[in-house]
DNA sequence: ATAGGGTTAG
């Protein structure tokens, strides 16, 4: 596009020969040198040519009755450097002053329209050109078709193109770059072929506008053909063509070619550097990206541009290299680039990926211009770091600020709903996505499916899954995982077999989904079968995560010794998570000896998590070794591990009510207490006995009962009973795993209240009905 | 010619 304007610039008639408008009489100073171009005219020309648009404008404003040529010059300057809207303002002022635009004015105006993606305005300008009888002008019609194509109206662009009596290479390039701009790969290639059939050979502009689509479509072979053509036509030495080729190879993941082109370039400009650094990022070579950045800054003494900073920050984010990221932040501040929205967005994402949400949020506050990307970055950052509630709050801020959420915002927000089991919010996101047409996007549907599954509405998940137009492996994985966490192993396996039959290749996550389904449902045989055959039959080699699933499966099913020998036979060193899976089963099975051994292993490996201390101390309590339990809790305190409080929440008509253990802060606290005591009496009548294993001290039976009665999930359920209709099911979500006592108590509660009660804990759904949980006590 | 945010599991 820019090249095509450049060629036209050369053909602009010399202003000296242009007819001049008569000057106003009242400016003697200007009139004085009437015969020659005035010094002010020359100044405007000089500044405009140097892209010093504001200076040019300053001078221009002092000229009383500028000629069309000068108007054109100013309009072109803005259309080139922006602010684009200024071109349009000047055009309107020109009309007010009854200066008639000529055939050179329109291409510049239309270029501004393309940049602004303002098709309505483009149409008005089109009409104006028609009334001036310029429809046959080659430049004007080329500019018109270019504008329509860039704004996405290919029909109009095509109509103009077809109606042209004469087409030069610029017209061809215009329509080609329009299609290429919108990533219509096949149509673009077809046009290039037609162009050649029409006897016009593609020039370097054609190549340059062609290459981005080729890269985008990963069409390496075509790219090579174009490369060869560029060599034959000796375009390939051109920096612009070479950069395009470099970028194309990088997008096709052909790094070595990209590097060769980069190294062979004699004069590298900043765009080459950014293309190469960006190329490394595309190809997942983050270390190389950072090394090249350092070479550029510290060896070649170049200043990073916003584009380069954005790419390099992305590399830091992927590596979670906080030091380098902070270093870049310093660069931004020093070079005054910290008000650039794009760079700022990358910076937010970098801090979020490194887990420093405070800095990410702080920077968001400082940002002068926040766009949907800024909000999306922060929202997904919050969710990734476990602050789903903050994510929802930020989303409210985003709405108040008038920034329209886009599909990426939804992809960030939907997991927040999943995490919170906030069904009402989730439904809103779903509805909004449908209205905005996002549901054509596979990732959006995937996030929606996951949201319904995690909010307890697994049948709606399946409904969405069945109706989406294109499923990828993630869609299948999410659906299988969904069935798995609901304990619906029959559905999970039937879907898995459907997947195998469909010809789509399962990936490593699919197998994690299958294995964890097995462990949730106690399917030891099936789990072993898929674990043993996955590497041969599906050519997926098991990772640590798969081993964790297997240990979990064996140990939960009670085969503690087998789990132990399985760990010993692992081809790599087991990490803390493997041992934790075993420890947790030791606790469930009250196996103190093995628990102690495992606990020692964990202490050697470190760093540990609080959960393991709690497991071990509970294990001691369950067999009455209160002193040992207390000793473990002391170590935990000394080493600075805080027990994260058990927390449960429930959504009632779109509002989330959260409770921690022993919580008496809710406004309805008195009613909740009464309800709990009432339930306790009824439960005991039916044979309920408090499970002492989870109470740390050797206390009286009654006291135990009362401590256990105020576990957060019980409070949330009581609150749910009080605030929903008697026949309604209840869904409560808990941040940790449900404890044995609550699991037992909820069974009684379903009998007393004749309701379905669902508890989603950290690992799965427990659907309680008629005194039974569908997990069959595997968890 | 180059650039920002994004779905699953462990």
Automatic annotation (TrEMBL):
Residues 1-29 are annotated as: Disordered. GO terms for molecular function: RNA binding; zinc ion binding. Gene3D superfamilies: Tetratricopeptide repeat domain. InterPro entries: DYW_dom (IPR032867), E_motif (IPR046848), PPR_At4g14850-like_plant (IPR046960), PPR_rpt (IPR002885), TPR-like_helical_dom_sf (IPR011990). PROSITE patterns: PPR. NCBIfam families: PPR. This is DYW domain-containing protein.
């Amino acid at each position: 596009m820019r090249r095509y304007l450049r060629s036209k610039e050369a053909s602009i008639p010399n202003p000296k020969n242009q007819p001049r408008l008569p000057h106003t009489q009242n400016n003697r100073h200007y009139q004085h040198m009437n015969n020659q171009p005035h010094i002010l005219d020359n100044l405007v020309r000089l500044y405009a040519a140097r892209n010093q648009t504001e200076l040019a404008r300053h001078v221009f404003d002092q000229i009383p009755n500028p000629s069309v040529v000068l108007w054109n010059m100013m309009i072109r300057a803005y259309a080139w450097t922006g602010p684009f809207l200024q071109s349009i303002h000047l055009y309107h002022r020109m009309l007010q002053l009854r200066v008639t635009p000529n055939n050179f004015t329109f291409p510049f105006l239309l270029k501004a329209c393309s940049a602004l993606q303002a098709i309505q305005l483009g149409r008005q300008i089109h009409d104006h050109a028609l009334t001036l009888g310029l429809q046959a002008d080659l430049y004007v019609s080329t500019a018109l078709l270019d504008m329509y194509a860039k704004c996405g109206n290919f029909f109009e662009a095509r109509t103009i193109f077809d109606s042209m009596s004469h087409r030069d290479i610029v017209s061809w390039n215009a329509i080609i770059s329009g299609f290429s701009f919108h990533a219509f790969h096949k149509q673009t290639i077809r046009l290039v072929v037609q162009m050649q059939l029409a006897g016009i050979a593609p020039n370097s502009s054609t190549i340059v506008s062609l290459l981005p689509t080729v890269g985008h479509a990963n069409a390496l072979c075509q790219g090579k053909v174009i490369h060869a053509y560029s060599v034959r036509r000796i375009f390939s030495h051109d920096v612009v063509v070479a950069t395009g080729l470099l970028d194309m190879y990088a997008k096709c993941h052909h790094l070595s070619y990209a590097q060769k082109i980069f190294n062979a370039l004699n004069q590298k400009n900043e765009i080459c550097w950014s293309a190469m650094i960006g190329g490394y990022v595309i190809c997942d070579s983050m270390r190389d990206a950072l090394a090249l950045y350092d070479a550029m800054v510290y060896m070649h003494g170049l200043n990073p541009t916003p584009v380069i900073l954005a790419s390099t920050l992305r590399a830091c984010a992927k590596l979670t290299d906080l030091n380098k990221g902070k270093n870049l932040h310093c660069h931004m501040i020093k070079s005054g680039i910290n008000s650039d929205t794009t760079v700022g967005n990358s910076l937010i994402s970098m801090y979020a990926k490194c887990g420093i949400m405070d800095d990410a949020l702080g920077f968001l506050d400082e940002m002068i211009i926040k766009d949907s990307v800024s909000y999306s970055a922060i929202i997904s950052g919050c969710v990734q770091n476990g602050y789903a509630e903050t994510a929802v709050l930020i989303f409210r801020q985003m709405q108040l600020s008038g920034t329209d959420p886009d599909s990426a915002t939804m992809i960030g927000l939907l997991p927040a709903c999943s995490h919170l089991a906030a069904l009402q919010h989730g439904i809103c996101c779903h509805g909004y996505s449908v209205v905005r047409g996002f549901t054509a996007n596979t990732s959006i549907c995937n996030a929606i499916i996951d949201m319904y599954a995690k909010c307890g509405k697994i049948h709606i998940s399946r409904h969405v899954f069945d109706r989406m137009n294109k499923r990828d492996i993630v869609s299948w994985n999410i659906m299988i995982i969904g069935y798995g966490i609901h304990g619906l192993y029959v559905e999970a396996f039937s879907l898995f077999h459907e997947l195998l039959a469909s010809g789509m290749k399962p990936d490593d996550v699919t197998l994690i989904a299958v294995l964890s389904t097995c462990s949730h449902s106690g399917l030891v045989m099936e789990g072993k079968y898929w674990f043993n055959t996955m590497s041969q039959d599906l050519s997926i080699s098991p990772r640590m995560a798969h081993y964790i699933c297997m240990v979990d499966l064996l140990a939960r099913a009670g085969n503690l010794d087998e789990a132990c020998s399985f760990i010993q036979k692992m081809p790599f060193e087991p990490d803390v998570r493997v041992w934790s899976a075993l420890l947790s089963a030791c606790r469930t099975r009250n196996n103190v000896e093995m628990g102690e051994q495992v606990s020692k292993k964990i202490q050697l490996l470190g760093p540990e998590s609080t959960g393991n201390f709690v497991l071990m101390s509970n294990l001691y309590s369950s067999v009455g070794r209160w002193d040992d339990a207390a000793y473990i809790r002391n170590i935990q305190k000394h080493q600075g591990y805080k027990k994260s409080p058990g927390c449960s929440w429930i959504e009632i008509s779109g509002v989330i009510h959260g409770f921690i253990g022993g919580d008496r802060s809710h406004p309805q606290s008195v009613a909740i207490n009464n309800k709990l005591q009432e339930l306790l009496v009824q439960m005991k009548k039916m044979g309920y006995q408090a499970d002492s294993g989870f109470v740390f001290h050797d206390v009286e039976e009654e006291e135990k009962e009362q401590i256990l009665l105020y576990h957060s999930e019980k409070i949330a359920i009581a609150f749910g009973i009080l605030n929903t209709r008697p026949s309604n099911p209840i869904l409560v979500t808990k941040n940790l795993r449900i404890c044995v006592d609550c699991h037992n108590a909820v069974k009684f509660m379903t009998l007393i209240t004749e309701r379905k009660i669902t508890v989603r804990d950290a690992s799965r759904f427990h659907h309680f009905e008629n005194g039974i949980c569908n997990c069959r006590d595997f968890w």
